[in-house]
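Re: that chain you flagged

S.,

Sorry for the slow reply, it's been a week of failed gels. I finally had a moment to sit down with the sequence you sent. For the record, here it is as I used it:
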Amino acid sequence: MRIGLIVIGLLLLAGGIWIVAGHASVPQTDTLVQIGSAKLQSTHEKALPAWAGYAGIVVGLIVAAAGIFRRR
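Prediction finished late last night. Pasting the structure tokens below so you have them in one place:
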């Protein structure tokens, strides 16, 4: 379990750094015009908020430290 905590912590840390660096985004679709059943939609990439990256870094450090300093 100790190794598992360290690995999960490092993955969260790496994901948080990835988000803060601005490389993480999610697609967002907006409906521009809708007439009856016909729609005109636009899809663009929206960046994830920086606070999510910072939270991932902090939680990742805590989980990894818990795995490192765990006795048995």
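What I noticed first: Residues 2-68 form one domain.

Talk soon,
D.
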